[in-house]
Design brief:
Structural class: mainly alpha
Order of helices and strands: HHH
Helix content: over 70%
Strand content: under 5%
Distance between the termini: 72 Å
Radius of gyration: 21 Å
Largest sheet: none
Number of helices: 3
Number of strands: 0
Length: 108
């Protein structure tokens, strides 16, 4: 595969990773998860970085692209962890409320 084609594939992957991060930031979890699934499916088709023969400019471009992908993954992970914590707190509140209502309905 020509180096320019390989770089284009990685850059397209980076664009999609950014879209997934933006969806997570908007709390559009359906879109974020769908894009995440697409990214996971696309990953095995990406050219292996260590096999690419790149000139200095292409190496610099690839390095920036990979850094952007890693930053998007980390930011998405942080956003999703925050959402998980919020959901866990809400579930705890719902369970507690349910127990109280159940006890009240039984006259306890």
């Amino acid at each position: 595969m020509p180096a320019s084609e390989a770089l284009a594939l990685w850059q397209a992957f980076a664009v999609q990773a950014e879209a997934a991060r933006q969806a997570a930031e908007r709390e559009d979890w359906t879109q974020a998860l769908a894009l995440g699934a697409q990214l996971a499916a696309a990953q095995p088709r990406l050219p292996r970085v260590e096999t690419l023969v790149l000139d200095d400019s292409q190496q610099a471009t690839l390095r920036l692209t990979l850094t952007a992908i890693q930053a998007n993954i980390e930011q998405s992970r942080i956003l999703m962890a925050g959402e998980r914590a919020t959901l866990a707190e809400e579930m705890h509140h719902l369970r507690t409320s349910s127990r109280v209502l159940d006890a009240y309905s039984k006259g306890v």
